[in-house]
Amino acid sequence: MSNLVELLVGRELPMDLREGVKFYAECAQGTVRAAGSRSGTVAIWSGDGPPAYMNLQPLKRKKRSEAELQGLWLSETGDILYAATSVDLLAVNTSTRMLAWDYQQKRQWGFLASIPQGGFLGKGDILTLLYSSGEEIQIDRHSRVLRQTDSGYSPRLVAKSAQSDRVFGSDGHAVWVWDAVAGFESRELMIRKPCYSLTLSGDGRQLAMRSLNEVSIFDTETFDVLGQFTVDPGLPQLALDSSGNQLAHMTGPRIVFRSVDGEVTGAYDAGADFPISVHSSVSGQLIAGLRGGLAQSLAWPA
What we know:
302 residues, Lipocalin
C-alpha cells in the first residue's frame, strides 16, 4: 500500500472487553450502544457515559465452547438488548441490566445445540433467527414466537438494512434474497459464488461480498456488479458506509478504506492490537473492534 494513503486517527469508545470486540449493536438513533466478545462479555453504554458490563454465558452448559455469543441486537429505542448464544436467546433490559426473558432453542437429535447462524431485527423490534438445524423463528420483544418454520436448511451469513424488508444471506457457496416477513422459504437465488462475508449499505441499495481475496459490490435491485477488485488476505468481515460509496475491510493490523472501484482512500493502523471486526454506525462512523478489547470510532475518508 502506498505511503501516501491517509492514515486515519480513531476515537476510543468508552469500554474495554479485554477478550476482543467481535459484536456491536446500536439503537435506531445510535444513542444506546452495546459491544460483545465471543466469550459472552457484553458492555452497554449511552453517549460517552461509562459502560455497564454483563456476562451472558449460559449457566447450564455441557462444555465451555457451547457458551459462545453469536449475535447482538438493540431494539429501536435501545431499551431491550437481544443476545443470541449458542444455547439460548436472552433479552436484557438495558436500564436495569436485568434479564427480561430467555428462550431455549431446541436441540438437534436430542443432544446437539441448534446454533443461531444469522439473524436480523425487523419492524416492531421483531427478531428473526436462523438456526443450524434449518429452523427459523420470529420472536417479539415479549418473547412471543410469531412464526416458526423448519426448512432443513439455513444460511450462515445474513444482512438486512433498516430501510428495506429485503434480506440477503449466504451459506458460503451462494447468495439468496428473500422477504423479511415471508421468511427464508421465500428466497430466490441472487448469485452462485463462494461468499465469506456480506454486508449492506445503510440505505440498502448496495451489497458487498467477499470471496477469498476478491470483493464484489452489487446493486441490490438489479444485481448489477458496481465494482469488483482484489484485496490482501485478512479477516473477511466488510462494512459499507451509509450511501454505499465506500467500503472498509481488514488486512492484518490495518483497516483499509476503498471506493466502489477499489481505489484505496484511507487506512487505519491498529499496530499490535489487530482489528477483528468492522461495523458501520448510524452516526456515520465506522466502528472497529480490536483484539485487545477496545473499539475505535473512525470517520470515513472524505
